[in-house]
Amino acid sequence: MQSAYSNKELAINGGPKTVNKHFQWPVFSDAEVNAVAAVVESGKWGNPDCGDEVRKFEIEFAAFCGSKYAVTCVNGSVSLRIALMACGVKAGDEVIVPPYTFITTATSVIECNCVPVFADIDPETYNISPAAIEEAITPQTKAIIAVHFGGLACDMDAIMAIARRYNLKVIEDAAHAHGAEYKGKKLGTIGDAGSFSFQSSKNLTSGEGGIVITNNDELFKMMHSLRNVGRIEGGQWYDHYNPGCNYRITQMQAVLLSQQLKRLDEQTRKRNENGLYLNALLNEISGILPLKRGTKITLHCYHIYIFKYDASRFGNLPKNQFAEMLAAEGVPCFKGYPHPLYKQPLFRNKNFMCYAIPETVDYSQVFCPAAEQACTTDAVWILQHALLGDRQDMEAFAQAILKIQRLVC
């Protein structure tokens, strides 16, 4: 049965594509074009003081999130790193991270000369498990990075309780979570700091860029300094107090983000509405199970819509082939990560280069069963721009899955 399938043959074996729609991303209008043009014409493309349009956007984003401060920087990887540095980690400290996330959640820890410690995910949400966090804590643990994967909020009540118990800092990796809410509160505002990415695929984008939000005065001052070559407010231009670097964004990125931010709330609510509807549709399909969404999730931004795939209900068709078939049917989807982070060559080969990671650190025996299962057999992703479609599109996604099931069973 499987040998009868290839991407090119799907139309022959399964008929015309189920989904024949282009889901545009990014969404923009003359407002973005005119804003960037105005900056170009002004001749002031950057601002070493992080003022003008950059500062304007920082104020806007902080207000949107309900935080006191926001600090922009070049990308979401750097935003994690400067948040960790500002939290006071030292060489050799341990930082707990999930294994089911993008690589830079962990490499930002290495770039602080700290040791990433992997704690498994909850198989029902794919977010880091509070129980696994507590099991991973040692006397060297100084921080937790809680990744709101796909825009689904972590169990922040449990994580913050653990952090208080062990005197740990919590950084929310909200690279997927622009506009999402936990108990009515914007993600990124619950821990000590919240880190966001503005990379091309993200729900709020300027092509590249990042930002950290916080309510802590001292964290803000340090992050502000670190992203601007160690300068401090009121200091002399060539006085550098901290080991920062030039991590500033440009005025053009800032105006793009200001315009995109005007669309974010409406887009987030659209994704949330479509995600709930798609949940209801997919719950009716044998072998397909949307991730659990608890009552504390008051707004889900669905940067990635994830469902769990049971191959036994699809003629034992491997997940990777199923995802290829679904994409061939016109659904913007992906098979997800091929393996957990600790299996990346970086960690298996201990290729830490100049970073001060102790020689005793060894990832060869790390095994997180829930993350392994998500990567190898279960997790299928539908991408965020597809959730900006209409209800008929969600119905078409469900029909595409049913079409594959009929084809292979």
Note the main attributes of this structure:
alpha/beta; Aspartate Aminotransferase, domain 2; Aspartate Aminotransferase, domain 1; seven-stranded mixed β-sheet; 37% helix; globular; disordered N terminus
Describe this entry's structure for a reader.
By secondary structure, the protein is of the alpha/beta class. It folds into two domains: 30-260, Aspartate Aminotransferase, domain 2 (3-Layer(aba) Sandwich), CATH 3.40.640; 264-408, Aspartate Aminotransferase, domain 1. The protein is 37% helix and 14% strand. The chain is built from 13 helices and 14 strands. The strands form three sheets. The protein has a seven-stranded mixed sheet, with helices on both faces. Helix 5 (104-110) links the parallel strand 2 and strand 3 (115-118). The model is unreliable at 1-12 (pLDDT under 50).
List low-pLDDT spans: 1-12
Structural class by SSE content = alpha/beta
What count of helical segments does DSSP give? 13
Strand content: 5-15%
Largest sheet: 7 strands, mixed
Strand order of the largest sheet: 1-9-8-5-4-2-3
Query: Which architecture of the largest domain would the CATH scheme give at its second level?
Result: 3-Layer(aba) Sandwich
> What integer value in Å does the Rg equal?
22 Å
N-to-C order of helices and strands: HHHEHEHEHEHEEEEEHHEEEHEHHEH
How many separate structural domains? 2
CATH names the topology of the largest domain as: Aspartate Aminotransferase, domain 2
Number of strands: 14
Secondary-structure map with pairings?
Blueprint: H1 10-14, H2 30-42, H3 52-65, E1 69-73, H4 76-86, E2 94-97, H5 104-110, E3 115-118, H6 130-136, E4 141-147, H7 156-166, E5 169-173, E6 181-182, E7 185-186, E8 193-197, E9 210-214, H8 217-226, H9 251-282, E10 288-290, E11 297-299, E12 304-309, H10 319-328, E13 333-334, H11 345-348, H12 369-378, E14 379-383, H13 391-408
Parallel strand pairs: 2-3, 2-4, 4-5, 5-8
Antiparallel strand pairs: 1-9, 6-7, 6-11, 8-9, 10-12, 12-14, 13-14
Helix pairs in contact: 2-9, 3-9, 4-5, 4-8, 9-13
